[in-house]
Structures are given as structure tokens and as C-alpha cells.
Amino acid sequence: MSAARRRRPLPGWVRIPPLTIRARLTLTYTALFTVGGAALLVGLTTAFYRAVYRPLPADAIPSRLDPDHDHFIGLRDQIRDAAVSHLLRDSLLLLLVVVAVSALLGWWVAGRLLRPLAAITAAARRATGTTLHERLNLPGPQDELKQLGDTFDEMLERLDATFAAQRRFVANASHELRTPLTVTRTAVEVTTAKPRPTTAQWRTMAQDVTDSTQRAQRLIDALLVLACSEQRVTDVEDDDLADVTAEALDHIAARSAARGLHLETDLAPAPLRGNLALLDIAVTNLLENAVKYNHDGGLLRVTTGTVPMADDCDAHREWAQVSVSNAGPVLDPDHVEELFEPFERGVHTRRSTSATVPDGVGLGLSIVRAVALAHDGHAQVAARPEGGLTVTLRVPRAPDQHATGAAG
Most buried residue among 17, 338, 369, 405 by CB atoms closer than 10 A? Predict the structure, then answer.
């Protein structure tokens, strides 16, 4: 018969409350002290018994016994038995008192030691989208609980940054989607408000509606690509980043030639394993941005290759990278990282009053960074002193084991 069958279930009215960590620590302290105290009590009592009941040495026994010898011997035995009995009773009472005191002290000490855990639990319970700015800042030495509190604070900081970025993203996406809808509504209202619209006016309205609809469609497509690229990579294949870049160059060849850009390429082999569809979108976005935000007749330099670098865990790995440089306006090196934020287009953002805003929704570099992160890589941007940018997409030649497991 198995142990599960031999074990009888407890009656329904018997409810054993779950023991907290503090209660378990207290019981552990009390049990250890009880075992130690009992062992000490047994040892002392045994030693006392041996000392008291040990036979007298031969030289201590008198050669001639007086008439009261038996009386003295009986009295000695009574005193000895009473002393041993009182010692054992007092020792047991003292052990019970010490165990009770140790249990109370253990409960207090466990509460003191676990106070940081209580603070972390309370912070986790009240954590919401509006309280992520709060931090524990646990005092004390750098022990395991202090490290746990600091890790919790770092997690709250990351969550706070993520929620803030999400709120900015939703606000910017709403604004960008509202713009083509406003243009469409204005074009329709202006045309229909006229008493007798002409055919040319109807055609103008239709063209405005078509243009704004296409802009909204491009924005929605870009948002969908961004959402997909922020997930872990799936359907990974072996390929060469140089071949992906060469195909993307074919897509922008006509636009590059129309603007008279000076194209320089150095497509060294860069084998990798990744999602080719996402990598193609990322490289194409890099090249389209380089053409879009360039001067007529400016520079367009594209290079690929493999570089050895250390990852976040200080492990040396081989990385495949593509780097795209273009000419353009001089940008502040301290703020170029902001171009990776959604809907950020530098001087061509929606907040700009420039009348020459290139066609785009400001998600190109955001998609590039998302694709890099999905492949456990990263994207870097640097301002060129003579104007323009150099953007580098770098991914490991083989995806991380965690990414591969998630993909499978």
C-alpha cells in the first residue's frame, strides 16, 4: 500500500494555518535551543550522578566502623537523593523558562531580520502605474535582504521607465493618427460646404483624402511592425547580413540616384542566424532614413562585417553588424539617442514648425532598435562632425539560448 493511501485526510473542521517565515524561524530557533539545552541538561545530570554516586576510594574508608556508621550512611544517601531530585527538577524548570524566553527573543529577532521583506511586500502590493516612482531605499549592510531591496528598486525603475515610454507612445500615436483624420474631415467639410462644388474641387478633395488615408495606413503598418519586432525572434534562419543589405540597397537605388547621392559600400561577409524578415525591415529602414534625411548629392556609406565584442555578461561573442552613414544637418551628439524614441525625427518632429518635413512617421529607428533587442543585439547612433548620422545595427551571430528556447 502506497504512502498516499496510508495517509488519512484530516477532518474538515481541522484547519492548519500556514506558517509564515517568521513563525518557521522562531520554531527553528526554539527547537535548536531546546535540543541544545536538553543535551546540556542530560550531560550535567549524568556528570553529577557519577560524581555523587561514585564509590569512595579505599583509603577513604575507615578501618574501624563506629556504631553509628550505618545511620550516617543512610542519612548521606537521603541527602544525596534529595539533592539530585532537586537539581533535576530545578534544571527542568529553568530549561522551560529559558526555552520560553528564547522563543520570544527568536520571534523578535526574526521580525527584525524580516522587516525588509515586509517593506518589499507592502511596496509590491501598493505598486500601480501611478506609484512606480516610489523606492524602498532599504538601510543596512549589503546582505541578501539589502540586495533584494535594491533589485526591487531597480525593477520599479525599469517599470516606471517602461510605463512612461508607453504613455508617451500612446500620446504620440494618437496625435499622429489624429492628423490624417483631421485632414480628411477638413477636406470633406470644406468641399461639401460649397453650394455647387466643381469636378476639380471633388478631385482635389479625393486626392487629399487619399493622401491622408495612405499616411494613416503607413503609420498603422509601422506600428504593427514595431509591435512584432519587440517580441522574441522566431523562424530563425542562417544567412548573411551582407546579402540582406545588398537586397535593401536595390530597394533604395532609384531614390538614391534621383537625389544624386554618393554611394560607398563595403559589404564584407557577416554570417548570422536570425529572423530574415525583421532584419530586412530594419536594414531597409536604416537606408531609407539615410536617403530621406540627406542632402542632395550627399554621402551614403554602407558597410557590413563581423566584429568580436563582449556581451552584457562579459562573454566574448562574434557579432554581425551593418553600419550606415549619411550626410545631413549637424546634430547635437548629446541628443541623438532620442532618435530611437517613437515618433522622434529630430528637427522634423511633429513639434517642429519646419515647412519641409520629410515623409515619414518617425518609427524607422524605433523599429531598428526593437529588431536589434529581439535578436539580443543593440543599435547605436552617432552624430558626424560634418553633419549627418552613423547608425550601426549589431546582432550576435547566433541568438541567445533564452531567445532560442522562447522561439521554439
Answer: 369
CB 274 within 8 A of CB 398: no
- Nearest-angstrom CA–CA distance, 304 and 241: 7
CA distance 175 to 154: 32
- C-alpha 302/C-alpha 291 separation (Å) is 12
Query: At which residue does the C-alpha cell 537539581 appear?
Result: 87
Name residues whose C-beta falls within 8 Å of residue 371's C-beta, 6 or more positions apart in sequence: 229, 278, 279, 281, 282, 393
Sheet hosting strand 389-396, strand order edge to edge: 262-267, 299-310, 316-326, 389-396, 378-383
**What pLDDT tens digit does each residue of the chain (408 aa) get?**
444 445 566 566 656 666 666 777 777 777 877 887 777 777 777 767 766 666 655 555 555 555 555 555 666 667 667 766 776 777 777 777 777 877 787 788 777 777 777 777 777 777 776 677 777 777 766 767 777 778 888 888 888 777 776 776 676 667 667 777 888 888 888 888 888 888 888 888 888 888 888 777 777 776 677 666 666 666 788 899 999 999 999 988 888 999 999 999 999 999 998 888 888 888 988 998 899 889 899 999 999 999 887 665 556 678 999 999 999 888 888 888 888 777 665 554 444 434 444 555 567 788 888 888 888 888 999 999 998 999 999 998 865 444 443 333
**Bridge partners for 324 per DSSP:** 302, 391
Q: Which residue, 148, 146, 214, 140, is CA-closest to 181?
A: 214
CA 144, 149, 155, 161 torsion-angle sign: negative
Cβ within 8 Å of residue 344, ≥6 positions away: 338, 362, 365, 366
8 Å CB contact between 292 and 360: yes
